[in-house]
Design a protein that fits this description.
Largest sheet: none
Order of helices and strands: HHHHHHHHHHHH
Number of helices: 12
Helix content: 55-70%
Structural class: mainly alpha
Shape: globular
Length: 354
């Protein structure tokens, strides 16, 4: 079918060997269904009294949870009731042909499930553990964090399944998402313009956050009380905070590569790689992951503020207010990454559009 469609449009045909490399839109739904079903079954086990439930009152750090006092007997059935139908929805979106369930119901359910699950069950510990791993500190990883990673994996596969399903509905290429009439904003020149604006935001927000942590490490209690600063000083907390902030600042500087030439061609100081083309996925995959984790962390801080979990907010605003802007950082980084992808995607090897 792809060969006939391409021939009718005057586009290059795709060989059977090449087609085998572009099957992910057809397969990702089955992977999503399997992961969500398995995790849903695990929650059925926990709902029936099995040990090891990772969320709510059983959380290793329940103060971060949206369900701090909710027992497994209540929360596990809720999760099972979310995950098992989601597995069925993923399977329906993956199967070829028309479904009896309206497409808007499938897609509406999917995006609500993605938003609710990430906001309610994932938090900043995912980002924090990634940062600590880069600093070679692995002690903070616990059973709850591992389950959050697995849950985010399932949700991510569900989101990609919906993306592939939407492409199929509008007769777009499953691999690149393009149709014969692409909107102007996806053109490389347009993407370069709005991508630069997104990068500016994605650089400014983390530097505002980092400035507070650097100030604390330098002995300046910016945005916190003297008492809190002294308590953190005794535990050397501010030095670790400065280290994490520095990682964020370095990540912000790397974001500039999404609009600079060194993000497309390795610079000359990189011995063995200089002058070679930077593989787009080398930037797109980590940037997309970080954008997701940053957004999750920022939403958690906003949720905790709404729940009234922060004491002495007027005195210690520096501990929470900068993080509440992280969803803006995550959205800007995601937009900058999308612009980079649009600029560098070139001609599709599956459908021949470019």
């Amino acid at each position: 079918m792809t060969q006939l469609a391409n021939r009718g449009r005057g586009l290059p045909e795709v060989s059977p060997t090449s087609r085998s490399r572009f099957r992910w839109p057809e397969r990702v739904g089955y992977a999503a269904a399997a992961v969500l079903f398995l995790y849903g079954a695990a929650n059925v086990y926990w709902a029936l009294g099995g040990g090891g439930f990772p969320f709510g009152a059983e959380d290793a750090n329940p103060e971060y949870s949206a369900f701090e006092h909710t027992p497994a007997s209540t929360l596990a059935p809720v999760l099972a009731a979310l995950l098992l139908p989601s597995a069925a929805v993923a399977l329906m979106m993956a199967l070829p042909g028309r479904r009896r369930v309206p497409r808007n119901v499938l897609l509406g359910y999917t995006w609500c499930f993605v938003a609710v699950t990430l906001a309610a069950f994932a938090d900043f510990r995912l980002l924090g553990n990634l940062a600590y791993a880069l600093l070679l500190r692995f002690g903070a990883i616990n059973w709850t964090v591992l389950n959050q990673f697995f849950l985010v994996l399932g949700v991510g596969l569900m989101a990609v399944t919906a993306l592939a399903y939407q492409r199929r509905l509008r007769d777009a290429c499953g691999s690149c998402g393009r149709t014969d009439g692409e909107p102007d904003w996806t053109a490389p020149e347009a993407a370069a313009r709005w991508g630069r604006k997104a990068v500016r935001i994605a650089v400014i927000v983390p530097f505002v956050y980092a400035s507070t942590r650097w100030a604390w490490a330098l002995g300046i209690p910016l945005g916190i009380s003297d008492k809190l600063w002294e308590e953190g000083k005794e535990d050397h907390l501010w030095y670790w905070g400065a280290g994490l902030a520095t990682l964020g600042a370095l990540g912000a500087l790397l974001t500039l590569g999404l609009v600079r030439r060194w993000g497309e061609v390795f610079p000359r100081w990189m011995v063995g790689l200089r002058g070679k083309r930077v593989p787009p996925l080398l930037a797109i995959v980590p940037a997309s992951l970080v954008a997701l984790l940053i957004t999750i962390a920022g939403v958690m801080y906003i949720r905790l503020e709404i729940q009234g979990k922060f004491d002495n907010q007027s005195e210690d605003w520096g501990t929470t207010v900068p993080e509440m802007f992280w969803p803006l950082w995550g959205a800007a980084l995601a937009a900058a990454t999308l612009a980079y992808h649009l600029r560098r995607r070139g001609r599709c090897k599956r459908c021949g559009r470019g």
